[in-house]
Amino acid sequence: GQFAAYDAATAAFKANSFDIVAAHELLTPVANKARLLQQIVRAAKRNGHVVVTEIVLTELGVASLAGSSRRAAEAGEALQAWLKLVTPAPQLWSHDQMMESFFSLNVDAAPEKISAAYSERIASIWGDLSEKLNSGAIPRPLLPTVAADSERWAAFRTALDTDAIAAMRYRIKI
Fold it and tell me: How large is the average pLDDT for residues 20-47?
């Protein structure tokens, strides 16, 4: 097998090139998601597999942009706190937009919400990081970077846990 890396914003793939295409949080910073999804699906061989893992706005996340309820407002605060810390700024689609895009490409996507697994993984990493901090295993010059990353991940986890965003996996058989 072969692995290849591409610039997500400008990638152009030869049709029917890959048995498996895995796109892990590739769409988040890309403005023209529909074009990139088209390229990804086009690149998969007949009977191939495409797996897209992406962070999406939930229904509550979409509602939070309008602040339509107290719960939506809380989710909106968590969402905005995370967005302020991420560079480049994520350009999120909703789950419905993802499904509509797959439909427009004439493919069936099987969605799976994997937010809980993401949240658990973050907690596990924090536990490992805490042990390393306590033991002095992290060099002092790296501590500001560790602190900034921890703040971003904490905000991300809060946005996940308030259901403003969701981690989704979409499986497609071509």
Answer: 91
